[in-house]
Amino acid sequence: MSEISSFASRHLATVIDRPEREVYDYISDPRNLPTWATGLGGGDVQREVEQWSMTSPMGRVLISFVPDNPYGVLDHTVTLPTGESTLNPMRVIALDAGRCEVVFTLRRGSMSDQEFEEDARAVAGDLAELKSILEQA
């Protein structure tokens, strides 16, 4: 097993020059996912009782976020068309009045080393896009 394989998760982060609550509100609205989360990269976002559905390159996926909270917790579950669900831990952490850090924990699950690295690159790209969008606002 490689050194990379020994890690069950990886924390990916970016600092965004916007207030924490603005960033939290943007990320927590699933209708904004198509603008920055290319892995889901779809559209047609619809409310489905207690979760959201959207068309993605993988087919129709379901997304459910934890309830709105004052702690910056944005954990969300993505359920693929296959029925497989993945919990994605995510946080928005205030650094000062006008800046925050967004931290996404990528969890390995049953991914190979190559798949894990590809997913890490994709999440890093998504966080960079999120930063770009929010800092231009």
Tell me what the structure shows.
It comes from Candidatus Brachybacterium merdavium. InterPro entries: START-like_dom_sf. The chain is 27% helix and 37% strand. By secondary structure, the chain is of the alpha+beta class.
Strand composition percent? 35-45%
Give the oligomeric state. single chain
Number of strands: 8
Q: What is the spatial order of strands in the main beta sheet? A: 2-3-4-5-6
Q: Uncertain runs with pLDDT below 50, 5 residues or more? A: 1-5
Mean of the pLDDT scores? 88
Helix-strand pattern: EHHEEEEEEEH
**Sheet/helix structural class:** alpha+beta
The outline comes out as globular
How many alpha or pi helices? Answer: 3
Q: What is the helix fraction of residues, given as a range?
A: 25-40%
Write down the Rg. 15 Å
Query: Termini distance?
Result: 44 Å
Task: Tell me about the largest β-sheet.
Answer: 5 strands, antiparallel
